[in-house]
Amino acid sequence: MQIATRIIAAQCLIGLTVSALWLLAGERSALAALGGAGTAIVPTLYLRWRMFQALRLSEEPRDLVGTVYRGQFGKFALTCVLFALTIARFPQEFLPVMSTFAACLAGYVVGGLVMDHD
Description:
Layout: H1 2-22, H2 27-57, H3 61-89, H4 94-105, H5 107-113
Helix pairs in contact: 1-2, 1-4, 1-5, 2-3, 2-4
């Protein structure tokens, strides 16, 4: 599960960097960008927790797959809720929210590319 840690670290670094860039447009834009970063990072943390839970609690493939599906559904639902809350809080700052969210999703690629190949 070290890849999951790298993905989360990459998402945090990207989120903070893009939010800092949005600070040039104003404090409210930077806060909205942090909301977009959180909308990407928190569900990833949730899914990582569910995957660890699945590996610890289950030896049966059927139970493992069920836990993974529930984890993915929870990640999707959490993303929807966080988007709704962030957009409700920052209705005029849609671009900072979406640009930072999209940039944080690139953390999956960056985290995968820097993976150890031992």
